[in-house]
Hints:
CATH topology: glutathione-dependent formaldehyde- activating enzyme (gfa)
Shape: globular
Number of domains: 1
Number of helices: 3
Strand order of the largest sheet: 6-7-8-9-4-3-10
Largest sheet: 7 strands, mixed
Radius of gyration: 15 Å
Number of strands: 10
CATH architecture: Alpha-Beta Complex
Distance between the termini: 26 Å
Amino acid sequence: MREGGCACGAVRYRMNRGPMFVHCCHCTSCQTETGSAFAINALIESDQIETLKGSPLPVMTPSESGRGQQIWRCPDCQVALWSNYGGARDILRFVRVGTLDEPGEIEPDIHIYTRSKLPWVRLPEGALAVEAYYDSSQVWPAESLERRKALFG
């Protein structure tokens, strides 16, 4: 179990299970939304996130897919805690790893959208990286694929 929260402390949450997979996304949308070079997202079932304090608020934003992204933010400090993609159904959450109390404990499994990676960002030697997105059936561990199938059929 890992805990995290926003900058002001008004929202706290717990991941009751490890993530299925972790993305380091270098797309231009993540760069814009974070004001940084990339976003690191831990993919986990929504029912495995327990809100301990406060009530994050959903904000619908555009996404590269055109289906929208719902970003859950602290109502006070507006820090993004997690997102839902693909039309914003709250089944699978993309938890912002930087909001965890110990973000260094979770490393990316893959670097995605490296075609728009900032030129000065250096990926770790041997890191799995793709120019855009990828086929999860080719790279996710079997257990994670089973968890995904349980969510989406």
